[in-house]
Amino acid sequence: MSAHPYDHGHTVAGWTGCGIAVTGTAVLGAGICTGSGPLLAAGAVVVVVALLVTWALHLAGWGKPSGPRPREQWDWRARDTGARAGHPECLGCRLAGRGRVAVADTVVRGPARVTAPAPASASVSVSVPVSAGADSVGAGS
Questions:
Q1: What is the rounded CA–CA span in Å between residue 54 and residue 20?
Q2: Which of 19, 73, 92, 139 has an alpha carbon within 20 to 30 A of 33's alpha carbon?
Q3: CA 65, 82, 57 angle in degrees (round to 5)?
Q4: What is the CA 30 to chain-centroid distance, rounded?
Q5: pLDDT digits (tens, 9 = 90+) for 91-132
Q6: Which residues neighbour 89 within 8 Å (Cβ) at sequence distance 6 or greater?
Q7: How would you class 56 by CB atoms within 10 Å of its CB: exposed for 0-12, middle for 13-18, buried for 19 or more?
Q8: In 3D, which of 62, 90, 97, 67 has the Cα closest to residue 78?
Q9: pTM for the full model?
Q10: Do the beta carbons of residue 59 and residue 92 sit within 8 Å?
């Protein structure tokens, strides 16, 4: 355990994905140094595999949600008990169809009334409907 009073976020998913990604970037670097197309392709494939393995481990509960965890889950080998339901605001969970966040109802405003400046000779009021998406342009706000 660490002497620090906070969670570093180290997890099985993080360490495994990082190890595979380091290997992939080393192969990519070797491909760049030697000018080898097959090594570049192999390194890119290994980096993509790192992403997929990390994602799969996160979904299996070996990752962690965003934000602080309870102290008993600070060990890097601790499984996340809430992973099955998905983490709110987690892109990986949303891509897997988990942890969907309810979207608030869209507010639809009625037409806005814009009053044009009156010429010096007459006072005329013009009513122009402004769509909800263009009110920052049309209404001058």
A1: 9
A2: 19
A3: 65
A4: 31
A5: 788 888 886 655 555 554 555 555 555 556 555 555 556 555
A6: 66, 99, 101
A7: middle
A8: 62
A9: 0.60
A10: yes
Please give the C-alpha separations between residue 39 and each of 22, 27, 44, 55, 85, in angstroms, as whole numbers: 15, 6, 8, 24, 39
For residue 124, is it left (φ>0), alpha (ψ between -120 and 50) or beta? beta
Contact between residue 88 and residue 79 where contact means Cβ atoms under 8 Å apart? no
Contacts of 140 (CB under 8 A, 6+ apart): 114
For the purposes of burial, counting CB atoms within 10 Å of the CB of 90, is it exposed (0-12), middle (13-18) or buried (19 or more)?
A: buried
- Using CA atoms in the order 54, 87, 85, 51, what is the torsion angle rounded to 10 degrees? -10
Structure tokens, 126: 């013009």
C-alpha distances out from residue 58 to 51, 68, 95, 133, 137, Å:
11, 16, 12, 38, 43
Can you tell me the distance from the alpha carbon of 118 to that of 141, in angstroms, rounded to the nearest whole number?
A: 20
Q: Two tokens at 18?
A: 């990082």
